[in-house]
Amino acid sequence: MHEASLARAIIASVSEALDERHIDPRRVRRIHLAVGELAQVDVESLEFAFGFAVEESSLRTSSLVIASVPAVLTCTQCGSRNLYSAEFFFTCPLCQGACVVEAGKEFDVVGLDLDDAELDDDSGHFVRSACRAVEGVVT
Ligand SMILES: [Zn+2]
């Protein structure tokens, strides 16, 4: 199952990033994940799979918090930015030009809440290194 391997990938990359910083994984309370509208991830299945996978890991005290990221498309012809919709698909609603995805394919760990501190934007490097590990599995 796709979502089961994603859940394991999240746990593995967060564990690795914590390890590098000598942070006890038992301190993690919440793992914040951003999932793009076009990332082809079933959020419910992922939450379910994570619940199982995390029990067998050193991150068992943590829960997964998933934020959905809307898809934004940019037109290669007129440069307009539009929210993705099934009607327009990858065609510009203004000029019918072809569009490229600017946002909406994310599958990133964007932050961790620890028991007595928060690591988010201030700790960008840590978070990004975790993200890259996850992306590697998705693509
Ligand atoms: Zn256009």
UniProtKB/TrEMBL annotation:
Cited InterPro entries: HypA/HybF
Origin superkingdom: Bacteria
Record carries keyword Zinc: yes
Binding site for Ni(2+): H2
Chain sites annotated for binding Zn(2+): C75, C78, C92, C95
Keywords, ordered alphabetically: Metal-binding, Nickel, Zinc
Pfam family, one: HypA
Family recorded in the similarity comment: Belongs to the HypA/HybF family.
Protein function: Involved in the maturation of [NiFe] hydrogenases. Required for nickel insertion into the metal center of the hydrogenase.
Protein name, entry field: Hydrogenase maturation factor HypA
Organism of provenance: Ferrimicrobium acidiphilum
